[in-house]
Amino acid sequence: MTVVVAVDLGATSGRVMIGRISGGRIDLELVSRFAHGPVAREDGLHWDFAALSEHVVAGLAEAVHREPGIESIGIDSWAVDYGLLRDGRLLAEPFHYRDDRSARGVARVHEIIPPAELYRRNGLQFLPFNTLYQFAADAHLDDADRAALIPDLIAFLLTGAVIAERTNASTTGLLRVADGEWDLELAERIGIPARILPPLVDPGTVIGRLRPELAERIGKDLPVVAVGSHDTASAVVAVPLSTPHSAYISCGTWGLVGVELTEPVLTDAARAANFTHERGVDDRFRFLHNVTGLWLLSETVRAWEAEDGAPIDLPQLLAAAADLSGDAPLFDADDASLSAPGDMPARISALLGTDAPAGRPAFVRSIVESIATAFADALASAAELSGREIDAVHLVGGGSLNSLLCQATADRSGLPVLAGPVEATALGNVLVQARALGRLGDGTLEELRALVAASVPPVRYEPRP
Ligand code: LFR
């Protein structure tokens, strides 16, 4: 039996999970889960990084307490955000990618380098919060000796080693799509000092061992192993893709919709459709588009709870939404006005205009159908741009539990949806650690995925006419 611990930090909640692999099966045990999100400070939206790292260390200690046989730690999180280090100390609390300072960075970068050239170099879809734009708007860059992306920053706190794990580094916009190395010329042109970019490592590399004081608190001296530290990269590892004709949707706060490729598609059409080339584990490309996912629902529920002063039963609300018939009014789930936190029902209503449903179940149905419509559009684009016929869609992550969303995605795309695993990201994290420990042989991605398919059978949704 191989036992490891996965720290998986999503944009609205984090979890620590024990992963066990034995007899051709993989299982997860939830150790701790904590909510988190943007916190408004005087100078903008941040992450409460002190609270986050305390949750991680406490979760790891609890994991080792429950399972002394744990052999390593892997960390993944949402992408693009970072902390600046100087002499081994964090200079300031990391900004949240939804903070609007990045708009200044976009203007500054695009003045120097046109978007078409950027796409040829880094292959990334335009998202205003890509790290390079955040760097360009960051007043403290010159004071720093290193920048570390969130999972790398946590690995640094745990071990003292500063690296840049490659799948997540590919979301900075500063990695060359051609060879996955830092584009130092690009960095120089936009005024980013090369010294802040740490050495790149691939998933499977041992980053370091726990600092002695942390090994003592956690209860064991463990190595921290680089996994696909971008959560989406780990999720895609655990998508039980059966054929090259399957697409995936990794659906949590975001819905990441795409296919896995071995060669990039750097066409004008791909750029116009805003399709990205994020690096996957084993040098695959995650050719995908970001659709605003469950963020729309979680922010809506948060606003209603504040209004009611009481918690809302979301499963009940979704069931009521599923019972409604007739066409739901649709809005563009990707509209830029929905990106910031705040009164989501009002902003969605503004997009729907006079069509905005009055009742909550109908409102929820509009949200879910609008997300499914955006998913279906992105699936069609993925097929067209990659020249690949798609005959099934794997929907993994939290969204896979939302049967209204899964069925609507099947209906609107005309494709069968295979839902699950819900914890794809943690599974991918665990699998890459186990392989690094030498327990899965050379384990190709296909073998890792077969292990997932054998352990977590998907729920199938057929498209209805
Ligand atoms: C999903 C995700 C997306 C990334 C977004 C912001 O959690 O990592 O892949 O585009 O968050 O970091």
Q: How would you describe the overall organization of this protein?
A:
The structure is a single chain. The protein is of the alpha+beta class. The protein has two domains: 2-231, 2-Layer Sandwich (Nucleotidyltransferase, domain 5), CATH 3.30.420; 241-420, Nucleotidyltransferase, domain 5 (2-Layer Sandwich). Helix content is 38%, strand content 21%. It contains 17 helices and 20 strands. The protein has helices at residues 49-66, 102-112, 115-122, 131-136, 150-159, 166-169, 184-189, 212-218, 231-237, 268-272, 295-308, 314-322, 344-352, 360-386, 403-413, 424-436, 445-455, and strands spanning 2-9, 13-22, 25-35, 39-41, 44-46, 73-77, 82-86, 89-90, 146-149, 164-165, 200-201, 206-209, 223-225, 246-251, 254-261, 276-279, 285-292, 392-396, 417-419, 459-461. The strands form six sheets. A seven-stranded mixed sheet has the order 16-17-15-14-18-19-20, with helices on both faces. Strands 3-2-1-6 form a four-stranded mixed sheet, sandwiched between helices. A three-stranded antiparallel sheet has the order 8-7-9, covered by helices on one side. The longest helix has 27 residues, at 360-386. The N and C termini lie far apart (46 Å). Bound molecules: beta-L-fructofuranose. This is Rhamnulokinase family protein. Residues 247-436 form the Carbohydrate kinase FGGY C-terminal domain. Pfam families: FGGY_C (PF02782), FGGY_N (PF00370).
